[in-house]
Amino acid sequence: MRFLITGANGQLGSEWIHFLRDKKKSYIAYGSDQLNITNRARVLDVLERDKPDVVVNCAAYTRVDEAEEKADLALLVNRDGVKNLADCCNLIQAFMIHYSTDYVFPGLSEDQFKYPDGYPENAGRLPVNAYGRSKLAGEKILEEGDFQNWLLIRVAWLCGEYGSNFVKTMLRLSAERKEIGVVDDQLGSPSFTFDVVEKTCFLLENNKSGVYHVSGQGLISWADFAESIFQKAGTETIVKRISSNQFPQKAKRPAFSYLSTKKLQQTNAALLEWGNGLDQLLYRLKNYKTKQI
Ligand SMILES: NC(=O)c1ccc[n+]([C@@H]2O[C@H](COP(=O)([O-])OP(=O)(O)OC[C@H]3O[C@@H](n4cnc5c(N)ncnc54)[C@H](OP(=O)(O)O)[C@@H]3O)[C@@H](O)[C@H]2O)c1
Question: Is 131 one of the catalytic residues?
Fold first, then answer.
């Protein structure tokens, strides 16, 4: 089975490449400079030439705050780019794997009582920001097209060894500051890139298609997450719990972002508790740093 990865230099794209390389799988990977998914003719050329069995779309416009002012650009990549890939996968009969986000849901604080296990895959979607709307538009391309060969995996609070994310930012800031303000009124659970890639392969190997959530087990706030990062990393930085109002951002953030993984559990996939995922990531980051020296 031959894989084609788009967005190869991002967090998830890099994780995919390391995974496929370690497993000695056949793959070809393209960064945005080599394969811009908004260029339909180029997408068709590349897919017809490479003839992959599986296309893994890790390309996305992910700048949540900038998307408020560049909503058209976010739609171009997250909706039109997905359409180009889906149409071309259809033409060459390749299976398409695509990723989406917790931000497609309304994220109301009271939803934590309605959905104590998190939003199920089929919960009503109503994004609160432009990035979320563009990702929802991408989901609809797959759902509403006449193409069945796809897996759509929603992840949340994504973090891993490569690229930038909350864990790496907190570790960097802890070397500079004694105290860091972190919001404690936004709840969710992190998805770890290594777990996302493993679970995606598990679903693929088990011939699953449709929508699945892959996320950590256990509901926490960003402040809880930061405290645990500092404690596990052995730093003395203190987390000052603040509200979202004290940390204004251009794009509105959902107050509740927890993704239910019950559907994934029904496939017999082993779920990952968020603290365990964090331990694994910190271990990988330590090794990664050593490898870089
Ligand atoms: N990060 C999170 O917290 C989070 C949370 C929930 C869901 N997700 C979803 O998870 C997936 C992976 O996210 P990630 O964190 O790995 O994102 P990322 O690190 O921002 O990587 C995205 C990659 O897509 C590339 N890209 C952007 N526009 C492109 C285009 N037109 N054609 C081809 N490539 C393009 C970017 O390249 P350039 O840098 O060169 O533009 C970048 O390397 C995305 O679908 C994202 O929406 C992420």
Answer: yes
Tell me the pLDDT tens digit for each residue of 100-117: 999 999 999 999 999 999
Q: Is the CB of 58 under 6 A from ligand 1?
A: yes
**CATH (domain of 84):** 3.40.50.720
Point out the catalytic residue in the list 131, 162, 212, 258: 131
- Report the nearest-CA residue for atom 21 of ligand 1: 10
Whether 247 is in a domain gets the answer: no
Structural domain count of the chain: 1
Tell me, rounded to whole angstroms, the distance of Cα 250 from its chain centroid.
Answer: 21
How far CA 276 is from CA of 93, 141, 186, 226, in Å, comes to 38, 35, 21, 15
**What's the CA gap between 41 and 87, in Å, rounded?**
11
Token readout for 194 is 């290594």
Residue type, 245: N
Do the Cβ atoms of 57 and 97 come closer than 8 Å? yes
Pocket test residue of 30, 56, 62, 168 for ligand 1, highest count of atoms within 8 A of CB: 62
Q: What is the pTM of this model?
A: 0.97
